[in-house]
Amino acid sequence: MKKREQQTTTRTADSFTLTRREALKSGLGLTAAAGAVGLAGGYLPGPLASSVYAQGSDQPIRIGFQVHRTGIGAVYGRWYERTSAAAAKYINSIGGIAGRPIEIVPEDDGTDPKRGAEVVEKLAVQHKVDFIYGPLFSHVVIGSAPRAGELKIPYFVVSEGYHVASGKLNRYVFQPGITDVRAQITSISSWVMDNLGKKVTMFFPDYAFGYDHRDYFSAEVVKKGGSIGELLAIPPTESSYTRYFPRIPADTEVLYHVMVGPGVLTFVKEMGEHFGSRRPQIFGFIDSLEGVDIATPGLDFLEGTHFWEAFPRYASNTDTRYSKAFREAVGVNASGASKQDPKDVATYSHMFGVWETLFVIKDAVEQSGYRSKKDYPALIETLEGFEWFNEGMAHPQGGKKFVGALHQCYGRQHISRVTGGKLDVVHTTAIEDGMYDAEGDYTKQSL
Amino acid sequence: MSFGPHLFLAVLEGTVTAFVLALTALGLSLVFGVMRIVNVAHGEFFMLGAVLAWYCSTLISGSPLLGFALALVVAPLLVGALALLTDWSVLKRVDYNPESTIVATIGLLYIVQQLVLTVFGPEARPVAAPVYFRVSFPWFGYSGYKLIVAGLSASLLLATWYALSRTRLGLYMRATQQDYEIAQAFGVPVRNVYATVFALGAMLAAVAGVLIVPVQQAHYLMGLDPLLLSFIVVIIGGLGSLKGTVVAAFVIGLSDGIVSVFFSPTLAKILATLLVAAVLVVRPGGLFGDNRA
Predict the structure, then answer these.
(1) Complex ipTM tops 0.90
(2) Which fold, A2-179+348-410?
C-alpha cells in the first residue's frame, strides 16, 4: 500500500511545470545540501526536504531487495524487511535519492544459496532494478555474489561475513552498512582476554561464518598470549548440544559462543544445565540470541555473562538522538522488541546495516550523478572513493571508516553484560581496534 | 572429563534420543505398515504438535504444568482431526496410490509449513518445561525433564503395544496389514481402519512434538529432521513392526549418542545412513519386517 501511495505522489509531482533539466538541477542542489548537512552530522529538516522532493520527481530508483523471508534466516529477514521499509519511507520523506523516489522491490531467497543466485538474476533481468541489496547469511552471499558480478550489477550485502573484505568476491559487491566479522572479532579480543581470561574454548557453527570466528579469534588469542582449549564446530541443523559439553577442557577460563539458527536457545539452556553454578566466564556473539528475549525462562543462566553487540538492543540514557530516531523509525521499543508485539524481538545488532546501506546507495547515486545503468562505473568508482561516513540520521549506529579497496566499512563495537535479564553496555571499542592488514584490492579488477 | 562419566553422558543422551525417536517413528511405521503409503508430511504433524503446545502455554500463563497438560490433549486432537481431513479430502481421492500419496503429502508438507510460517512466524519460540529440575551428577548436570520425556515416551509405546495386540482395533489393523482383501472379506472395515491409522500416526507425532518442545523450541522448520530420522528407523526396523521400530530407534539413538560424543555428529549420521544401506541390501524388509517380498 505504501508503494502505491508513493507512486501517486510521484504522479502528482509530475504535473508540476518543471523541465527535466530544472528538476535535475534542484536534485543536484539537494545533493550538495545533503552533503553539507550530512557532513555536519545533522539530518534534513522535513519541510525543506519534502518541497525539494516534489520538484525533483522523476522515475523512481528501483532497488531490488534480496530478503530471507523463509528458511532459517526468516527472523532476520522479517526485521530486515521492516527496517528497509522504514528507511525507504524516511528517504522518500526527505526528498528521495537525487530527487527521485526510492522503490524497494523485495524477492524472497528462502535463505538458500542456489535460490539466491536466481533472485539476483530475476531482480536484475526481469524487474530491471538499479541495484540489489539485502542478503545476510554468508552461504547465500557467497552463492549469489558471483551472479551479480556476471550481470555487472552493484550488489550491496548486509551480511557481516568476512567474504567481501577478504577480496574473494568481485568488484560489484559492497558491504558499506555493517562491519565485517573479522574486524568485530579483532576489536573485542583484547577486552575479552584482559577481563575474562586467556584459556578459551570456542563453539561456532560448522560453516563459513563460524570458520571466520574460529580462524580470526583463535589467531588473536594466540597472538595476545592466550591459548585455545578446544574448537567445537556444531552442525547447523543440530538440535541437542549436551553431547558437546564434555569436550570443554576443565581448565577453560572463557567459553566463546557464536551460534545461529533455531536451536540457539536450547544451546544456552543446555549449557546452563551442564555447568550449573560452576561455570567459566562466557562470552558470546549476540547472533546466538538475536530475535530472542534475554528474559526468557531458562536463560537466567546467562546472568553475568558477556555479549558482543553492534548496536545495543536496550535503550540507555547515553543513546544519541540519531539512535533514538532510528529506534522510533523501525518501531522498536526500549527493550529491543516490536512496539506492536513485545514478544517479537528485533535483530537489532544487524538490521541497522540495511538502513545505513540504503543511505550509502543514496550518497553514491547523488555524488556520482548516476542516472541509469550506463553510469555503473562512475557509481562504483565514487563508492570506492568514500573514506568516512559521519554519524547521523544516515548512520545511526555511529560513524564508520570505509576502505574502498576492500568495499568494506568499519564501525565501533560494544560489549554488554547481562544484568537483571537485560544487556548493559560495559565497553565500546574504537574503530582502529578492529583494523587488520588488507588481503585484497577490488579496485584492481576491471569493471 | 574422564572416560567413565563421558560414556555415561553418551548413553544417557542416546537413551533419551532413542525414546523420542521411537515415539516419532512409530506413527510413520504404522502408516507405512498398515496403509503401505509414505507420509512425507509426518514431520509436520510433529511440528504442529510443538506449535500447538506453544499456543496452549500462552493460553494458560503462569502454570507450565497446566499448559502442558492442555497441550497433551488439544494437540493430538487437532492434529488427528487434520489427518482425518487429509485422509478424506486427499488420500481417499487418490485411492491410496503409493506414488500419488507421496506427491500429495509433499504438498501437504509445504502447505502446513508455510501456513505456520504465516500465522505463527519465523522465530523459534520457547515453551517452559512442565517440571524443571537439574539432576546433578558428580561430573556434570543433566536436564531432569529430559528423563521425564524418556519415561513418558516409554509409557506411550507400551500403550500403543497394548492397543495393537489386545484390542479389536489392533486386531483390525494387524489384519489389514497382513492382507487387505481377506481382511475386508472377513468384515473388517478397511477404509475406516485406514483413516484411523492415519489419524493415529499423526496424533503420535503430535504428542512427540508436545513432549520435545520444552527441550527444543517451536519452530516452523523443526519437522524436517525428525522426518529423516524416522524414515531411517522405519527402514531399519521393518515396516509396521512395533518391535522393529523400538529396536531400531535404540540402535540409532545410542549409536548417535555415543559416536557423536566421542567422535563427531557428522560421523554418527554417516553411520546411520550406511546402516540403512546395509539393511536394504541384506534384509530389504528391515530387521523385523516382512522379508518375503
Answers:
(1) no
(2) Rossmann fold (3.40.50)
